[in-house]
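ESCALATION

Customer reports they have been waiting on this structure for their group meeting. Please prioritize. Original submission:
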Amino acid sequence: MTYQLQENEQAVLLTQDAAPTASVIWMHGLGADGRDFVPLVPQLGLAPAAGIRFVFPHAPRRPVTLNGGMPMRAWYDIRELSAGSLEDAAGILESAARLDGFIERERALGIRADRIVLAGFSQGGAMALQVALRYRESLAGVMALSTYLPLRDRLASEASEANRTISILMCHGRNDPVLTIQLGRLSRDALQALGYTVQWKEYDMRHEVCEEEIGDIARWLRKALP
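Update from on-call: job pushed to the front of the queue and completed.
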């Protein structure tokens, strides 16, 4: 499988040889950038004719309180990592608008909304959930890796009816020291309480991605984007 790689100030683009008919918009975690998950794509073993374009946006640089105010790529500020911590709602909404723009760019290139998957790791996974569950038209799915549900108290009133039955894959490491498995399970339970169906996977790993998880991601993607 060969891919063409392009990069600009906004994102890294990875496109199969076949003309794109679907898109995966995949957000990186705190302090990384759009290059972070590019090496994982060939490991998914997707069919050459799948026609999937991978878009890896770069988060803007901003001071992060958790890291002593150091500027780094971040979708929003983080003050602390706990279930009841005060969230940077303004930063989350700002990045949500930015990611809505990426969806619209894919649609302008001829990709239907129901052929677009939002994905992300850690803080990027939080943004994938934030945007996908509120998007006005049905998306193909949302993949949230080692992450949590942001602004969860607002979701009941803000959720889009179009994505009430969206395919959701959540994966988490049981030994994650950054975002604990308890935080992931709490987010899963919150989604299920609102009527969402969540495919939940746990692994004996830390805040990372493992080989077994890559296999599960590949199988889920093939089903979400047949």
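Sent to customer with the following note: The chain has five helices and ten strands.
Escalation resolved.
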